[in-house]
Structure formats: C-alpha cells, structure tokens
Amino acid sequence: MTQVLEKQRESSIVVEKKGLTTNYAIAQAVKDVDVDVIAAYPITPQTTIIEKLAEYVANGELDAEFIPVESEHSALSAAVGASAAGARVFTATSAQGLELMHEILHIASGLRLPIVMAVPGRALSAPISIHGDYQDLMNIRDTGWIIYIASTAQEAYDTIIEAFRVAEDPRVQLPVIVSYDGFLMSHTTEPVELYDPKVVREFTPRRLNTRPILNPEKPTTIGALATPDWYYEIKYQAINALKLSRSVINEVDSEFNEKFSRSYKPVEGFMIDDADYVLVTYGGAATWNALEAAKEARDRGLKAGVLRIRLFRPFPADDLTKALSNAKAIAVVDRAVAPGSPIEGPVFKDVYIALHMAGIDKPMLSVIHGLSQRTMYIRDFYELYYRLKDIAKVGKSPQESLFMGLR
Amino acid sequence: MGMAKQIKVGIRTIWDVPKEEYFGPGQLTCAGCGPSLAVRLMLKVAGPNTIIANATGCIEVTSTQYPYTAWAVPYIHVAFENAAAVASGIEAALKALNRKGIANTKAKVIALAGDGGTYDIGIQALSGMLERGHGVLYVLYDNEAYMNTGIQRSGGTPRFAWTTTSPVGSKIRGKVQSKKDIMSIVIAHRIPYAATASIAYPIDFMNKVKKALDALDEGPAFLHVFAPCPPGWRIDESKTVEIARLAVDTGVFPLYEWDHGKFRLNPPSNAHIDKSKRKPLINYIKPQGRFAHMKEDEIKAMEAEVDNYWDYLIRLLKAFG
Lengths: 407, 321
Fold this sequence. Notes:
The complex is a heterodimer. Chain A is α/β, with parallel strands linked by helices. Chain A has two domains: 3-263, Rossmann fold, CATH 3.40.50.970; 267-403, Rossmann fold (3-Layer(aba) Sandwich), CATH 3.40.50.920. Chain A has helices at residues 22-33, 47-58, 72-84, 95-100, 102-110, 135-139, 153-168, 197-203, 231-260, 284-287, 289-299, 317-324, 346-357, 378-394; strands spanning 3-4, 14-21, 37-40, 65-68, 89-92, 116-121, 146-149, 176-181, 189-195, 221-222, 262-263, 267-270, 277-281, 304-309, 311-313, 329-334, 364-368, 402-403. Chain B is α/β, with parallel strands linked by helices. Helix content of chain B is 36%, strand content 13%. Chain B is built from eleven helices and eight strands. Chain B has helices at 34-46, 58-63, 83-99, 115-120, 123-132, 182-187, 202-214, 230-233, 240-249, 281-285, 296-320; strands spanning 50-54, 75-77, 108-114, 136-142, 193-198, 221-226, 256-259, 262-265. Chain B has an eight-stranded mixed beta sheet with strand order 2-1-3-4-6-5-7-8, with helices on both faces. The interface between A and B is large, with 47 and 48 residues. Strand 10 (221-222) of chain A pairs parallel with strand 2 (75-77) of chain B.
C-alpha cells in the first residue's frame, strides 16, 4: 500500500532499482544513513542483515565499528554505551534474541537513546521454531520504543531512514524498532528503489550537542538511581515523549515525501472509504494476502476493505477510529497471541480499546493466524469477509478468538 | 624471583598522589567502605579524561542518587551484568567518531563492577569484551559478596564465609564452595595486562592503574582490587585497611601481575613464596565476624587452600616469570 505519489521525483535521487530481500534493504539503508557503530549477534531470520553490514564494513563501504558481541543482551548494552557516547547506532535481532534484550529495551528508552533496531518477527520457543510471526514484537510492545511494522522491502528501506530522523529529533530522543515479517519478507526478494546516499545523509543530518553524552569536557551522569521521589516524573517524561512523537513521525514522513516522493501513514487503508467489512492487520499480510482477498470479495459484490497498521507504537488511535468509523464489522488478524487474556489477539485489544474510547461500538472478530508461519491462504482472509457479513447481521462480537489454520 | 622485576614506578610515595578528587564527597557508602576508597584512588590516577561504565552494585547505588552525583567524570550505569558490554560500545563509539572526524577525544574507558557483577552475572560480557580486544580497563572491586542487596554469597565469596545465603547452620556451616579464580579466567584471554591490587597498598594499586591505562592502546586491561566491606564481613569500620593488609600479608590475597605474557609477584607478596614469611592465617580470620564460627579443622582446611593456591602461583611464576 505504498503510496507512490504523482509528484515528479527528481530523477537524480533514485540511483538504482535493485532486487533486494527486506533484510538486505535494511542493511542498505543503514549504510546510506552512515551509522558509526553496529553491535549485533546472529539469529535467524535476522542474520543476513548483519552479515551484509559486516561485509560493508570489511570492504570499507561503511565507516563504522562492527562489534560482534557474544549475546543479544550485550548487543543492546553495547548499543546503549555507544549511543550514550554520541554515536549513531544500529542493531537487529529476532525472537529469543529480542527476549534476551528485554531488560535493556526498557533502559534504552528510559535513557532516551536514539538507537534504531530492525526486528524481522519470529515465533518464540517452546516449541522452538525459527519461523516467522509477531510474538516477539508483541512481547516488547510496552518497553517504550517507537515501533513501525513495514509491509514491503521498499517500505523497510524507507522506514529505516525515517527512523533515524525521528529517533534523533530533540523533541523525541527515543529508540525505534522497524519490524516486518520474518522469512516472508526478510528472505523474499522484491524490487527496491535506492536513493543517492548523499541525499539520504542530507535528510538525516548529524545532530550534535542536542543531548547529553559521555564527554569529558562536560561530565554528566547517565543512568542515575531514582528514588520514589523522582522515578515517576522521570518515567513520565519518556512516556509523554513517546506519545508526542506522533507529530514528529508525521512531520518526518511529510518531509520524506517532499524529498523522496514516498509517504506512509500511521494506518493505511485500501478500499476503506466505503467498506462495510474491514480486515485490520499488519506486516506483509496486510499488503498481500488481505488485499488480494479484499479484491476478490469486491469482485463478488462485497464491500471489503483492508486497514494496515504501520505505526504500532505510539498507537495511532485517532487515525484508526477515523478509518473504521463507517465499517459494519471489523476483524483484526493477529500473528501473535496474548494467552489467558479476555480475548487472545494482542492488536485486537488495542483496536477494540481505541474504538470504544471513541464511543464506537461495532461487531468485532479477533483472529489468530500465521503462528510460526502457518500458511495464511488468501481464501482464509476471503472467508473472514463472509464471517464479518454474518457477524454484522447478528450485530454482536464473538466472545472468543478464532484460531484460523489450526489443525 | 619477583624482586628482580619491579614495576615501573609512577607514584613513589604518598606525596606523589594527585590531590585532585574525581570521586567526590556526598556519596552514600557505609563508614569504612573499601570499594569507595578503591574508586577514589583509581580516579586520582586516571584523571578527568576518563569515562566510567559502572555495573549495578554498591558503588552505583551510593554514588548516583538523583539529583546528586559523586562523579566528576562522565559516568553511565546501565544494568548489572553488562558493564563490559557497555564499555565495549563506548570504546567502539569513540574510535569511530574520532576516525570520522565527528569527535576528537583521547578519553580512556573504565568498566567498574563488584564481585557479583564480575564473577557471576557479568562474566559473559567480561569474557566477550576481553576476547574482542576492546581497549577498556575493567576494574573489579571485590568485597566478596552481594553487599548491596544485603550480604549474599557470590562466586567471589571465600569458602566458610557466612553470608545470608550461606548461613551457618547445624548441617551446613557457611559457604561450601571455594572462591573462583577470576584472575586465571581473565589471564586465559591473553590480554596485555592484568593485576591484583589492594586498597591497603595504595601506591602499588595506583601504579597498576597507570600501567593498565597505558596498555589500553594494545587491548584490554584488568584490575582485581581487594576491598573489604565492614558490615558484610562483620568488622569494625576502622579496620577496613588493616584487614585488607592482613589479607595480603597472610597470603590470602597475593599481589601479582600478568604483564604482556610475564607473571610477576609484587611486594610484599613476592616474599611470601617462603611460607614462613607470611603472617599466620588466624590473624586474618579472627577479627572477622563472617569467619567467627570456624573451628580448628575448618581453619586448617582454609590454610591448605591458601597453600594450594600458592603452589599454583609458584608454578605460574616458574612457567611465565
């Protein structure tokens, strides 16, 4: 659902159109913004990003320190140290690696460090699985990071560039995750337009002296102990910064559009304006499976639409409610589970709350699918439109999540 | 053997010690705190062009209580187990920023952690940092237990010592296991410089800080600093230095260094190859409440352990002296 706008793009900005996996597109973007330090540990399906970055550094294409750490915990810890010392820092991980980082995720946002991390989503053990879903990402949603979920390799490339701008903005100063489908995207080759690195660097200028760093000329203590007298206020600043980052995220995207003629909204609708039945989802499934199903449903006379959540944190509740206000019934397709919750779809809960907070009460269906990359057929999404039609007729939300594709 | 190769002296007497303080008053350590003395002396040598990456622990909680700080140098605390990883990141950042002309700094990076943060939860990050060869000085202040959480045993706690998680009961009497040999683990990484030091021998300690910092262009350096804890060891707060000195003088904590592949005992430990030159072990055990339960046979067992360690050191000296 990338909106390639009609505006004439300066022909010199796109230097190459290349077939890239999303992982390679991420590595390319990291090179183009010119990072200083990469600290990373291999884990499937993230590994090919850091292999490519190690190659760039080894070949002198990227002037950075590559720290091949001994664990993901140390990957993010080294990233925190490097960022606190003033460097532009990137890391990447998946699944167990993201879980091992968990402690430091909270610290990176609490210390307001503009680290950017790529997370191709993957199922969590046990049983151990290397395949894609979004359980890892859902488990870390409350760690105070800005979280994008990309749906194409081009979007992933573009989002890394936007992410550095947003993270380093003095009004934000928060770490950013760019997530996408493990394997289905991380290892799938798509055409990607690459920009002139000079222009990318102009778009992501160095912001020196905008935050306290570890500098002997101006000694500062980072990571001080906060007693109950202070903890709440300091934490609230980070929480508020995440909330307020919405406007910067939009502003950066507008500027990105000006420069590169591409724009991504926090939620992106497809055939949404007059849709009665809407599938809300995220990642590649939104752009491919759901969209194909919607087209087929439309061919058969059903007013079907898709809403893709691109910005997951801070959650764009206002844009989402606006986009869904005309729907008759809504399904949220999650590729992760919140076991034991009143209803098991983690993003379903966000969508449900957002709508109800806005006073909108519609029949809604929570769908779990695609765990450990269980195949999500287009016909499954197609079937959901007909379920929504029935649910709209009854006028009530099913009380349980639908576990689709479960044998 | 050891006497022939004296360390290069930077500070000869106490009068040579820099007057500047970089670990200020206002920190909240207990009276008689050994680790705070170690940090103060360390920073006198390291000076203002130093960046500290501190693990969670006594020094961290007592020196950075917001909105105050005891640190006159740049300082970061991230978590318990990752001081070495954080320091790795800082060192890499300075390298990259200097090379790219974004910064121009000659700052030295020091990772600082206690025994819990080093022997136990932080050993993976420490090993990673040493293996990758970051130019970081790692300073272990060893007060031989988790004192910050209220005296729990660590891999650095000596055998027989009472702690709240190695209590003296009717069936188990104090810590069952021996103190981990952290220096051998560190030396196995073949780093340029590693040494033991004690707050009771401040000139030796400070010269080792200088030597370690000078080695950072070649790779990592490690200092294992013995630093008693009065509340944890059940000693009077006026006895911190005295007990630390006895640890060295009885041979419990020998002073030595691993300097570019050479092993060297430092004074006064170099004389302690001859057991008769060591003070009786009981002098060290007796004043400490944590050893108060020890019976004759247990003291004998501890003595045998000290002797065994000395046999090992003497073999090291023969091989690498």
